[in-house]
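Issue: copy button drops trailing tokens. Both records pasted manually instead:
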Amino acid sequence: MNLIACKIHNNSLGKTISVNSFDEGKALLRQWAEEQFERSLTNEENDSLENEMEIYNDNDFDNIYSFSIGIVEEYVKE
């Protein structure tokens, strides 16, 4: 399985990095989000990261940042 960690800004893919595991991806997302928001994650954000593999800040109305783990699949043309 090929996993990626993604930083998304205003619905555009901002940064994508290949990661070796969900734990590695979650650690990277946590680092990115804490650097971006200049604070530790809230309980709600930590729960979202653990359960949905994503972080979204509802309070960032103008410049929406979100962070997510995804699975890369190989495209097979039919």
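Record 2 (pasted manually too):
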Amino acid sequence: MIWMNDEDAWWQSSETEARLGRAFYWLATVLAGLIVIFVTGDFFISWAEGYPILRVVALIAAIVVWLIGRTCRSLMA
């Protein structure tokens, strides 16, 4: 019986795709982090003005952006 060596398998990604996937992931993570920072700042500013409002839609958008980055990382890895 011959054992296959999976080093040259067609389903394995190249190094370029792996770097690109990680780059998209980190870009999405930084963008989602910035969204969370701005939402937090907006919450504290509105709290100081007397009407604290938490922007839930913006937090959901940050989660979606981060998940898109994770998907890019897993598909391009």
